[in-house]
C-alpha cells in the first residue's frame, strides 16, 4: 500500500474521534528510517486558549489516549503490511508550518524561515508572519529590522514557529 494511502486511511480513522474529544490533527507521516517504518501522528488541542485566555497545550495523556484508540482501530483494519512504530505527539512549540491552514492559523506569530535558494544574500529569515495569501501561495514576513519579505510558499524549504523566551 502506498505511503500516501496509509496517511489518508489514518486521517479518516481519526477524524471523528479527534473532533469528539477536542483534538485536531496537525499532520501525519508514514516514513522509513533505516530499516524501520514509523507512523507519526502530530495532534493538538482544537482550542489554543482556556476560558481565562491562557495558552493550552496537548499533554502526554492526550497523546496516549489518541495512540490507544488508533492502535486498536489499525489492528482491526490492518491496512499496513509491514511492521511499524506508532508515535503520537504534539507538533511542538516550534511546530513546522506545512499546510496552508498552518500559515493561516499563525499569522501574527514569530517564525523562522529557511529558503531553498538565497534571496538578498540570505537563506534564513526570522520575523513575524504578517500575512498569508492562500490563493496566491504567498506569505509576507516582516523581519526584526522592519523589512518585508514576500515569498512564495514553494520557495520555503522549512518554516517553523519561533520559540522566543
Structure, described:
The protein has 3 helices and 8 strands; from the N terminus they run αββαβαβββββ. With 165 residues, the chain is of the alpha+beta class. The strands form 2 sheets. A 5-stranded antiparallel beta sheet has the order 7-6-5-4-8, with no helix packed on it. Helix 1 packs across helix 2. The model has no long low-confidence stretch (mean pLDDT 93).
TL;DR?
The chain has 165 residues and is of the alpha+beta class. Helix content is 25%, strand content 39%.
How is the secondary structure organized here?
Blueprint: H1 3-20, E1 23-33, E2 36-45, H2 60-77, E3 85-89, H3 100-105, E4 110-119, E5 122-133, E6 138-143, E7 148-152, E8 156-161
Parallel strand pairs: 2-3
Antiparallel strand pairs: 1-2, 4-5, 4-8, 5-6, 6-7
Helix pairs in contact: 1-2
Keywords:
alpha+beta; three-stranded mixed sheet; globular
* Share of residues in helices: 25-40%
Structural class of the secondary structure composition? Answer: alpha+beta
Our estimate of the beta-strand percent is: 35-45%
Distance between the termini: 44 Å
Output the strand order for the largest sheet: 7-6-5-4-8
Number of helices: 3
Averaging pLDDT over every residue, what do you get? 93
Provide the gyration radius in Å.
Answer: 18 Å
Poorly predicted sequence stretches spanning 5 or more consecutive residues:
none
Q: Could you say which overall geometry the principal axes of the C-alpha atoms support?
A: globular
Number of strands: 8
Main beta sheet strand tally, sense and closure = 5 strands, antiparallel
Order of helices and strands: HEEHEHEEEEE
Amino acid at each position: 500500500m502506498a505511503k500516501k494511502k496509509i496517511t489518508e486511511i489514518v486521517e479518516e480513522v481519526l477524524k471523528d474521534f479527534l473532533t469528539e474529544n477536542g483534538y485536531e490533527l496537525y499532520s501525519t507521516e508514514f516514513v522509513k528510517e533505516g530499516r524501520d517504518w514509523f507512523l507519526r501522528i502530530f495532534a493538538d488541542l482544537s482550542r489554543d486558549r482556556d476560558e481565562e485566555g491562557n495558552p493550552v497545550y496537548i499533554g502526554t495523556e492526550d497523546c496516549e489516549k489518541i495512540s490507544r484508540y488508533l492502535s486498536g482501530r489499525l489492528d482491526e483494519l490492518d491496512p499496513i503490511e509491514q511492521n511499524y512504530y506508532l508515535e503520537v505527539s504534539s507538533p511542538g512549540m516550534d511546530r513546522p508550518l506545512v499546510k496552508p491552514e498552518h500559515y493561516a492559523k499563525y499569522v501574527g506569530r514569530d517564525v523562522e524561515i529557511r529558503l531553498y535558494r538565497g534571496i538578498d544574500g540570505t537563506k534564513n529569515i526570522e520575523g513575524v508572519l504578517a500575512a498569508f495569501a492562500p490563493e496566491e501561495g504567498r506569505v509576507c514576513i516582516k523581519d526584526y529590522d522592519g523589512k518585508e519579505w514576500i515569498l512564495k510558499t514553494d520557495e520555503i524549504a522549512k518554516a517553523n514557529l519561533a520559540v522566543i523566551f
